[in-house]
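User: Study the shape:
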Amino acid sequence: MGVDAAAFKELAALFSGRATLYAVGGYCRDRLLGVVPRDLDVCSALRAEEVRELLSGSGFAVSEKSMRLGTARIYREGFSAEYTAFRTDSYPEMSGAHRPEKVTFTGDIREDAKRRDFTANAVYFDPLTEGYTDFFGGTEDIKTGTLRAVRTPDEVFGEDGLRVLRLVRFAAELGFTPDAATEAAAARNAWRVRDITKERVLAELDKIFVADTAYPELGVHDGHIRGLRLADRLGLTELLLPELAALNGLKQPAKYHIYDARRHSDETFAVAPPEVRWAALLHDVGKRPTSDAQGNMHGHEIVGTELVRARLDALGMPRRRAERVVELVRLHMTDLKGDMSEFKLRVFLMRHSDIADDLIALKRADAHATVGHDVGEPRIGRIWREMQEDGTPLSVKDLPVDGDDAAAAGFTGRGIGEALDALLCASVTDPHLRSREKALAFLKKRAEKTEGRSGK
């Protein structure tokens, strides 16, 4: 949903006479690229408390976010904007610490522009005149798809280590290219990401990994892999995903693979759908330690499971989400040769039905990156599709009988759950057991056998 341009103009009119309200950053960039702006950052010479006073009774509400930074949120139904007063920022010298040590408010828009990161983000737009204010050539850089630091690049990155990751994200999402000086300075300052909170780092990586989906209108279909390649050039992979970087140059058996382990991981990531890209990129990180320790890669998925769990924890990924990635890594070798019995594979899919779609997507991407082209639907995918089409029960809740029926058949305690689970497993290949009559007969027969074995 785009920004309500009429509401923005109405808001700017309320400022008129006291100050000029500008949009800055992404709104201007999107507008110049011909993309419908979705977010709105606004600024003026007024401080946040002055804005609250100015808009009192106007229909726009003001929620102060940080008095020290002069920021607030201006909103009403269907409209929201992040407000910042013109300011200059002072950071601890070359700290990369992200938050300014000192903030000084100013009435000079040019001074405000100097504190920003890239020229493409330092363009201002006045909705009343529909004119742009641009001190550093950002308008032209947007047209040419260039990312260039507003000031001396080392100074820009030295102030805020997060800007190195932002450079990668903007390049990935927009299809822009950093100019030589900016990229070189980003590489020199990449180590500063260590000063950034893990939550902010993860948020940027998440955006980079789905960069191809950020602006469909721009057609940057390879945005995620562009971002990964730039991260490599800057040295960010070694810093943030060292287990992945360790795969560089690791040869794989030519009988099965056309790429080395790192290129294979990148290619898997490149063709994987967004929801499985973390697993796609990290699925083979166990290959370096297994290869070094035993001369082959057997069991790499088990070793990789623990490596991925530790790395995602270090990045602050929420536990539930991280465990899903870990589970995909652990299971990605399932039915690799296509020789698992159909019964076992159906039971496996039933047990892992919550991640079956993602696992199949990962395996298809993995196979593509093994031989260099799409190999079609894997066997596990065909069987999973058949299970969904034929109504295979995926949990005891899907059975035509329940615990009361198992108890009536003679089972007690833990035996009730065991009996229902046995019926569930049998049902994955025997559709007759999906009728209540046959399911009751199964429970009765199993109960009789259980009594016979116990001598009752």
Notes: The chain has a mean pLDDT of 94. The chain is about 50% helix and 10% strand. The first strand starts at residue 22 and ends at 24. The domain at 150-240 is CATH 1.10.110 (Hydrophobic Seed Protein).
